[in-house]
Amino acid sequence: MKIVIFILISFASYAVGRISHILGGDLNVPHHWIYGVLSIIIGLIFYKHDWGKWLIAFGLGMVISDFKDMIGCKFVGPDDVKIKKFWGID
């Protein structure tokens, strides 16, 4: 049951990341992979608690949804994508 919750939280945070990319991709704000990495770090510190594992799942979904920007070391700024799509990694 815990693995199902982990997967659901990961997908939900992926969806939040993709929606924020579509709706706010033209804003000059920090990229959401940064929040994902912070969530993973905090989750690893508190991994013995269930909510620590949930933070890791949340962070993984955020990082995956913005993986291309993380690899490119984009920290702040608008996305330069012309076609915004929900399914994908950007």
Task: Describe the protein in words.
The structure is a single chain. With 90 residues, the protein is mainly alpha-helical. The chain has one domain. Helices cover 64% and strands 0% of the residues. Helix 2 (32-45) packs antiparallel against helix 3. The model has no long low-confidence stretch (mean pLDDT 86).
Key phrases:
single chain; 90 residues; mainly alpha; 4 helices; globular
Number of strands: 0
Provide the residue-averaged pLDDT.
86
Instruction: Give the helix tally.
Output: 4
Structural class: mainly alpha
Number of domains: 1
Contiguous low-pLDDT stretches (5 residues minimum) are none
User: Radius of gyration in whole Å, from Cα?
Assistant: 13 Å
- What is the H/E string? HHHH
Strand percentage: under 5%
Q: What is the distance, rounded to the nearest whole angstrom, between the alpha carbons of the first and last residues?
A: 30 Å
Major sheet summary line: none
Shape, per Cα inertia axes: globular
Instruction: Report the helical percentage.
Output: 55-70%
